[in-house]
Task: structure prediction
Amino acid sequence: EIVMTQSPATLSVSPGERATLSCRASQSVRSKLAWYQQKPGQAPRLLIYSASTRATGIPARFSGSGSGTEFTLTISSLESEDFAVYYCQQYNNWPSITFGQGTRLEIK
Amino acid sequence: QVQLVESGGGVVQPGRSLRLSCAASGFTFSNYAFHWVRQAPGKGLEWVAVISTDGRDLYHADSVKGRFTISRDNSKNTLYLQMNTLRAEDTAVYFCAKDKTAAAAYYFDSWGQGTLVTVSS
Result:
């Protein structure tokens, strides 16, 4: 099983500032990496797939980068609705796909 | 507009069975692979199972293999998860999730709101 490790567990950032979230895979997943946002009581929402492609309707302030084992989700200028939990997910090793444990992005 | 509505959750005793349903609308259901993903209370996401467009290809996570079975009825636009021999560790919100493609890309562009399954005596 590929283990996905996200860091930090909690990130405190002020509105308007940049947030950088990291995700590391225990072995290469090429670019088969997705990012999701989840708010309390809601289902996850797809933000990024193929490591860097924004999903339909996702604002340009969200960007993804990386390949192999190291990935980054960047939110360029945080808005109030961006404070949530973010998960990375690898889908290279299907059907044994795995998620990271999540990064909680909170208001500083 | 894509809509996925799960139902069938509830409180069940260990060892008993439950069947979840996910009703789909707003798109051509039979054109996409589908998944179940679960989330234990206060925890992260865990993939559970996938089914191909025609229902012939199924895969289940090791944690549920032999106990859970995913299925679909394309004539009813509905996805199912039959859960047998339930354990306390199966307690979670269960989401149905639409695959981005027909060929099962294994990432999910639409999700239902989830249905809570609680396994407890």
